[in-house]
Specification:
- With 216 residues, the chain is mainly alpha-helical.
- The chain is built from ten helices and no strands.
- Helix 5 packs across helix 7.
């Protein structure tokens, strides 16, 4: 675990050093892609660093390009994760037919996606690791690819925009403290997730109440 932390810290330091180069946009895209499949890759931090670099006078690229690079990389990565899940769905279904616990987990994942819909894809994108689990689950449960791509497109644009603008707006505070940037980004992600869940729960309660009143 400590070795992995050391590698990530070294990677973050390298990202900071090279962030002023125009080709850093390609780095943002690649890391955002990989993070969808391998959730230990620091994509949020990379997009924030790109935002910080874009805000420096004489920067070699604009914050809009940071958003585009992050969103495109995340979109491709999420769809790759979906395809991995889709291709493994047959194997999982055969296992589910033999093992009740696997069948229950698969049904639970399908029920959660059906109940929460596309908003779940948006909230999951803000949770490191959570997005990988959900995109894989979407493939495993054979969700419509067009539905998946539409919601993931919205999710990745929102995600990349908030991370890049966060770095761009508060660059002076984050330039020498990437841990603070990550913690703020993670806190904002949890706040967004909580807000959406509260709204969803309230809407569900109102729908249930209206249904009861209609029945009476």
């Amino acid at each position: 675990m400590f070795a992995a932390t050391g590698v990530i810290n070294s990677l973050t330091d390298w990202l900071d050093r090279v962030s002023g180069n125009w080709w850093f946009l390609a780095v943002i895209l690649i890391i955002a892609l990989l993070d969808s499949v391998i959730p230990i890759v620091p994509s949020e931090t990379t997009v924030i660093i790109g935002g910080v670099a874009a805000g420096i006078a004489g920067a070699s690229y604009n914050v809009v390009f940071v958003i585009i690079a992050g969103a495109v990389g995340a979109f491709i990565g999420d769809n790759l994760s979906y395809q991995i899940g889709r291709r493994a769905s047959g194997l999982v279904e055969r296992r589910a037919a033999k093992k009740e616990s696997t069948a229950k987990k698969l049904k639970w994942a399908a029920d959660q996606i059906e109940e929460r819909g596309g908003l779940l894809l948006i909230t999951a994108r803000f949770i490191p690791g959570g997005r990988t689990i959900l995109t894989l689950s979407s493939g495993l449960t054979k969700q419509s690819q067009s539905w998946f791509m539409g919601w993931v497109g919205v999710a990745t644009i929102i995600w990349a925009s908030y991370a890049a603008i966060l770095g761009y707006a508060f660059g002076s505070q984050f330039e020498d403290d990437h841990t603070k940037a990550f913690l703020l980004a993670f806190g904002a992600a949890l706040a967004v997730t909580l807000l959406i869940e509260v709204v969803r729960y309230g809407k569900k309660k109102l729908t249930a109440k209206a249904t009861q009143e209609t029945a009476v």
